[in-house]
Each structure stands twice: as C-alpha cells, then as structure tokens.
Specification:
The chain has about 280 residues and is of the alpha+beta class. The chain contains six helices and twelve strands. It has a seven-stranded mixed beta sheet with strand order 1-2-3-7-6-5-4, sandwiched between helices. It has a five-stranded antiparallel beta sheet with strand order 11-10-9-8-12, with no helix packed on it. A hairpin with a 2-residue loop joins strand 5 and strand 6. The longest helix has 21 residues. The structure holds biotin. The site of biotin has 20 residues, from helix 2, strand 3, strand 6 and strand 7.
C-alpha cells in the first residue's frame, strides 16, 4: 500500500493505533522489521533499551497508545493523552563515535518537522536541543539515549512524543505552553500515515548522512535553518543557573554558544531555553 494514495478519510481516527496498517505503509523500511505495539506501557524508551541490550536488530520500534511512566529530558515526566498522539522509540546501531550521536537527534527532529509539513502544511521549528515547536508552543519532544562500551556506541534509542489529535487546551497543569497538530489545524490526521512518513524520511536521512559527510553537513545546515532560537535573545536554565544572552551558534555536537550581555561566550550542552519577549513600553 502506498501512503501517498491514502486520504485521511480512509482511516478511522477513533481506533487504537493500528500497527498492521503502519507495517503495510512502511513497505521495505528497516523500521518495518520488528514493530512492537502496546496499548499501555511504562515507557517506550525504557522497554526498547532492554530489547537493545538483549540484541534486538537495528530498526526495532516500540510504539504505544499510552505510557504510565513516560520520560522527558532532564528526568521529567512526559504526559500524553491515551490514543491521541504518537509515542514511540526506534533502535539504531550506528557506527558513530559518542560525540557524534547528536546528529541522530538532529535528523530525527528534521524527519518529524518534514513529515508534519508534508501532511499538514504546518511549519514547525526546532528548539534546542530537541523540542519540536510551533507558534511558541511545544508540539513534541525527543529523548535520545545511548549505550557506550569501551568508547564504542552499542546502540541508540530515539524516542519521540508528538502531539497529534489531542486538544491540550483542555488539560490543566501542563508544564509548558503546549500545542498539537489538531490545535493548529482543527483537523485530525492518521497517526499511522504520519508515522510511516516520518520513519521513511528518518531512514532516508540516516542512510544519506551515514554514507557521506557532505550530506551530514547539509542536514546540519537544514537543522540550523529550522532553529527557533538562533540569533535571538534567550534565557537558558540548566538547573544550576539561569543565563541570559544571544543564542549565537550551535555546533554539530549540539553545543550551544551564548553571548552574554557583557560579551562573554558561554557554552551549554543541555538546559531549557526560552526566547525572551520584548515588551514595548506605554
Ligand atoms: C522532552 O521533551 O523532554 C522529551 C520527551 C520525549 C517523550 C518520548 S514519548 C516516547 C518516548 N518514551 C519515553 O518515555 N519518552 C519518549
């Protein structure tokens, strides 16, 4: 079955995620080899890390309609509504040194925003280090985890939570301004079709980027163009400190350079960034 030939009204959007349909849409993708679907799971990342340690092949994917202990970055919880969004993790076994793993987070984010753009026309952006943003609100997040033995990467688990058919405006106690495809377009989309599109793009970007360093550089440039923070006045909170400055650059290893008000250069490997709002005086 070709995902391009299917329209949204050919999918029943009220049903649980249909893993068989996803597999049929994926054709010969590496992500079609070993798909594990659970209605409810603790965390797809935790589950997949265990499978990775047990030797599961590259391309193995775990997807769920609900997580009881979904993980976000910096030890946070990832909250999602059952059956509405995408919650999944994929396993890669790249031949990359540990300091190059950020490349995978980059192409995963690009595959996410490109798939959303192709299916809905929405222009999502990337907020360092791994958030998908739209109109100043969080559309999704990525959690990248990897294992290293004697300096060699054994496996990488890329997990994504993407808000699709959910209406977050009805939720209380969300940690940050949150959006979804539905909130932006007022239309529901097939999660299977969106995910198959995203995984095909991810595979394409992965193969190209791993095969040739110039392609990898082009993905980095594209990722930079989609940055929601570069060149802007931002505040970064790391848990230990809060620093204001201009987001001057992000390198290929994901290190953010900030120029502070007194002209000092500061480098950050993780943290929460928000773009500073300029309020005009009356
Ligand atoms: C973040 O923005 O903090 C990252 C959120 C990542 C959430 C996804 S949902 C699927 C996968 N399984 C998890 O437990 N977390 C990631």
């Amino acid at each position: 079955m070709d995902s391009e030939t299917l329209k949204n009204d050919e999918f029943d959007l009220s049903l649980p995620f249909n893993a068989e349909l996803l597999i049929s849409l994926l054709n010969n993708s590496i992500f079609q080899r070993n798909v594990i679907f659970k209605i409810t799971i603790g965390s797809t990342n935790v589950f997949l890390k265990k499978l990775a340690q047990e030797g599961s092949p590259e391309g193995t994917m775990v997807i769920a309609d609900e997580q009881s202990a979904g993980l976000g970055r910096m030890g946070r919880e990832w909250f999602s509504k059952k059956g509405k969004n995408l919650l999944f993790s994929v396993l890669l076994r790249p031949e990359l040194p540990p300091n190059k793993i950020f490349f995978l987070t980059m192409i995963f984010a690009l595959a996410g925003i490109d798939a959303v753009q192709q299916m809905t026309g929405l222009n999502a952006m990337i907020k360092w280090p791994n958030d998908l943003y739209i109109g100043g609100k969080k559309l999704g997040g990525i959690l990248t985890e990897f294992a290293v033995k004697k300096g060699v990467v054994q496996h990488v688990v890329l997990g994504m939570g993407l808000n699709v058919n959910w209406n977050p405006s009805t939720e209380k106690n969300l940690m940050y301004p949150t959006s979804s495809i539905f909130s932006e377009t007022h239309e529901k989309v097939s999660r299977e079709k969106l995910l198959s599109k995203m995984l095909k793009l991810l595979e394409q970007y992965y193969q190209k980027g791993m095969a040739d360093v110039h392609s990898a550089e082009r993905f980095f440039e594209k990722w930079t163009e989609k940055s929601a923070i570069l060149g802007k006045a931002v505040v970064i909170e790391t848990g230990n400190e809060r620093v204001e400055g201009e987001a001057a650059g992000i390198d290929q290893e994901g290190v953010l350079t900030l120029i502070t008000a007194n002209g000092h250069e500061r480098k950050f490997v993780c943290g929460d960034v928000s773009v500073k709002m300029n309020f005009s005086e009356h």
